[in-house]
């Protein structure tokens, strides 16, 4: 693939990772995921692919200068920007280590060799001045995909949530047991009060032959209205 196309693809990928990194920073679960390594990977790739974009731009400009006989000053300046971009990614790479560090060292070495080659060619043939960074062409991201918000995806309820919903944490179980004991104590206290009042009422009624007197009367015949009147008055 042509270096110019590679530069555009790398610049677009850099934007994807930068946006993912920004979204990750506002979500506490993602920030702490894998002890912060996941967030670090996103930040690293955002800067790494931007450096690759400038590397391919430098390579494309170097080849073009060789064909047209001019423009090596631009290639040389783009190489400097490429090295600066790689240096911005280095702290994140050092934290990741492993294959990330191996690949990073390889790419920054290639960038350094290309920069050195551009400087030597410029000194021997082109004699062009370095171009200020503000005047250099920017990495032009070719949008090969539509950007979409990650908020819905990040805040979506995991499928595993329904399967784990019946699980109760130990702390909650302890609180449930404590609440159960408190409620049982309240219910038992109410039953005790009712039982005490019932015994007191029965003792009071027995002083007047109640309710046995009523039971003896109703067993054989209806209670006369005069007795009901006395009971109501009582």
Outline the structure in words:
The protein is 76% helix and 0% strand. By secondary structure, the chain is an all-alpha fold. Helix 3 runs parallel beside helix 5 and helix 4 (72-96) packs antiparallel against helix 5. It has helices at residues 3-25, 28-31, 37-68, 72-96, 98-126, 151-155, 160-164, 170-206, 212-220, 225-233. The relative contact order is 0.09. The mean pLDDT is 82.
Summing up helix and strand content along with how strands pair, one would put the structural category as mainly alpha
The number of helices is 10
Please summarize the sheet with the most strands.
none
By CATH, the topology of the largest domain is: Serine Threonine Protein Phosphatase 5, Tetratricopeptide repeat
Give unreliable regions as ranges.
none
Our Rg estimate from Cα atoms comes to 43 Å
Q: Roughly what percent helix? A: over 70%
Question: What pattern of helices and strands is seen along the backbone?
Answer: HHHHHHHHHH
> Please, what is the CATH homologous superfamily of the largest domain?
alix/aip1 like domains
Count the domains.
2
Name of the CATH first level of the largest domain: Mainly Alpha
**What percentage of the residues does DSSP assign to strands (E)?**
under 5%
Query: How many beta strands in the DSSP annotation?
Result: 0
């Amino acid at each position: 693939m042509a270096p110019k196309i590679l530069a555009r693809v790398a610049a677009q990928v850099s934007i994807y990772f930068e946006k993912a990194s920004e979204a990750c920073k506002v979500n506490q679960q993602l920030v702490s995921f894998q002890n912060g390594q996941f967030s670090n990977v996103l930040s690293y790739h955002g800067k790494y692919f931007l450096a690759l974009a400038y590397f391919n731009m430098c390579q494309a400009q170097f080849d073009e200068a060789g064909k047209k006989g001019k423009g090596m000053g631009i290639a040389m300046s783009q190489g400097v920007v490429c090295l600066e971009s790689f240096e911005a990614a280095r702290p994140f790479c050092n934290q990741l280590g492993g294959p990330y560090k191996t690949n990073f060292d390889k790419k920054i070495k290639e960038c350094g060799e290309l920069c050195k080659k551009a400087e030597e060619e410029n000194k021997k043939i082109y004699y062009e001045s370095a171009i200020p960074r503000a005047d250099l062409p920017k990495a032009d991201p070719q949008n090969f995909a539509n950007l979409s918000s990650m908020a819905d995806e990040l805040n979506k309820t995991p499928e595993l949530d329904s399967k784990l919903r019946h699980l109760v944490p130990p702390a909650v179980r302890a609180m449930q047991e404590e609440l159960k004991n408190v409620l049982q104590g309240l219910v038992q206290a109410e039953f005790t009060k009712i039982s005490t009042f019932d015994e007191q009422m029965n003792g009071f009624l027995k002083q007047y032959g109640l309710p046995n007197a009523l039971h003896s009367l109703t067993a054989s015949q209806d209670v006369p209205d005069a007795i009901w009147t006395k009971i109501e008055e009582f």
